[in-house]
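REQUEST ID: PR-0412
SUBMITTED BY: lab tech R.K.
PRIORITY: routine
TASK: structure prediction, single protein chain
INPUT:
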Amino acid sequence: MANASGALKAAVRPVAAVTVPSTVTAGQGVMLQGGASAAVPGHTIATYQWTSVGAQNLSIQGGTTAMATVTAPSCGLGTVRLTVTDDLNRQDTADIVISPTSATTTAPGSVSATGACSLTPATIQVAVCPTTDSVQAGGTAQPFTATLGNTANTSVTWEVSGVTGGNATVGTISTSGVYMPPANVPTPATVTVSAVSVADPGQSSTAQVTVTAAPNSGGGGGGGALDVLSLIALTLGGLTRAISRPYNSR
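STATUS: complete
OUTPUT:
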């Protein structure tokens, strides 16, 4: 009976339908349309509510209207949730994952007259920030962050060039995403920092990190040795002039 009750509630609740744009630009507005959402015959959608529910907070304009505009992130992922409520206070929700280049959702774009719709299973999405970086061998640590979409489990495993936690050759990375470059430049000099979803290890995201040599402490190109030689030459020259001066004055 409990299953029958749940099926009945699902059958009479409204359906949140969302259409998203085909292209997205980082930092620009993303128009999300929820006006095709529908209640069961004889009822209507009373309210729309758009909220940012991911780890990255996204700016939303028109949060209580059928159409909202969301500012796309410059890096990583953000999740916006549409909640529709009908005139009997029954609700349905739909999540939209927004990246700097795309907006995706598993919600239907529209609902048929019978209330039927098809849903696509959600695929976990992962994004690492920053996506590229340059560090010096033996230099300071570089933190990375991972944001996920379509999952409540936001845990990731960090790898460096395919090695969990990294190693002394390619650099190490902590469980919180802090990368420590190696003491020497590896071969190749560019390593890959990856965040792998714990919920679905088949889903991951990467960043490219170039490790450069630390600058020569003497200024590079043997400049330090040349400076010492120049100082010695100047000192010897001064002594020579001081010694020869009494003889020249006779």
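NOTES: The two ends are 125 Å apart (CA to CA).
REVIEWED BY: pending
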